[in-house]
Design brief:
seven-stranded antiparallel beta sheet, single chain, Cathepsin B, Chain A, 265 residues
């Protein structure tokens, strides 16, 4: 009788030359980081594979840069030079509670093209451009506003932690939309945007334009949203989601919303 195949067998016989092994590893590691960060403890086999996976990602990015890619392969993590714009201080009072998307994209733009949006209220300048194309909550208006400034980007709805890591390796922060209200087991509401500026195996580093949330309960703790550390486990359950009706969502790995930059002119 054949012995059932266990996950440990794959780890022991992992072959980085085989594409399906690499795909399996990435999926497993992302799930482990989200569900059980302790699985990547120092000295373990999975920890070594995680580090090798990260190094492989950086090497691939470096090869792209060497062949003419715009972004160098080595960047600080968290990224430096990403400003913090707070939506609460918008000069457009009617937009203060609803301009998180614009403030997050404004942080992206100023990080990529410093000096484009000067001052602590540079996001108001960006918001005015967004409104030429549509509402602040409209993704197409955001993409057109970024294009106005020479940034080519797209909205994706199949993002995961691997995509975040790839963008940070390129030196590009990544705006992400997540469901911020309700308990983490069943988040609810219309959603909110922030920008991810760094990561660790267990956490993301973010700038949230509204302030610091309680990812477990869905409440807002305070108005200080710069350089927050969000656990992958709790943020993932609010970011990678799908609707289940009644304004509620459930965890759906690989279905995160994000604005991904393709190029800067």
């Amino acid at each position: 009788m054949n012995r059932p195949i266990r996950a440990g067998d794959y780890v022991e016989h992992f072959d980085p030359e085989l594409p399906h092994h690499r795909a399996w590893l990435q999926a497993v590691l992302e799930q482990l980081v989200a569900l059980d960060p302790a699985a990547l403890e120092e000295g373990g086999i999975l920890r070594r594979l995680w580090i090798e996976h990260q190094q492989d990602t950086q090497a691939t990015t470096g090869q792209a840069a060497a062949t003419g890619g715009r972004y160098p392969s080595r960047h600080a993590n968290p990224l430096v030079g990403v400003p913090y714009f707070q939506q609460r201080d918008s000069a457009q009072r009617s937009q203060r509670d609803r301009s998180c998307f614009s403030s997050s994209c404004a942080m992206l733009l100023e990080a990529l093209k410093p000096g484009t949006l000067p001052g602590s209220n540079g996001d108001d300048q960006y918001l005015a451009v967004v409104q030429r194309y549509g509402d602040t909550t409209d993704a197409n208006a955001q993409l057109q506003a970024l294009a106005h400034y020479g940034v080519t980007a797209q909205l994706v709805q199949d993002a995961d932690f691997g995509l975040i890591e790839q963008q940070i390796a390129r030196g590009i922060p990544i705006p992400c939309g997540y469901i911020h209200r309700g308990p983490v087991e069943r988040p609810t509401g219309s959603g909110h945007w922030l920008i991810v500026v760094g990561h660790t195996p267990t956490h993301l580093v973010v700038n949230d334009p509204w302030g610091e949330p309680d990812l477990v309960s869905g409440a807002t703790l305070n108005a200080h949203g710069m350089g927050l550390r969000f656990s992958r486990r709790n943020f993932g359950r609010r970011w990678m989601v799908e609707p289940i009706g009644g304004g509620a969502y459930r965890y759906a790995p690989g279905k995160g919303w994000a604005v991904v930059v393709g190029g800067v002119g």
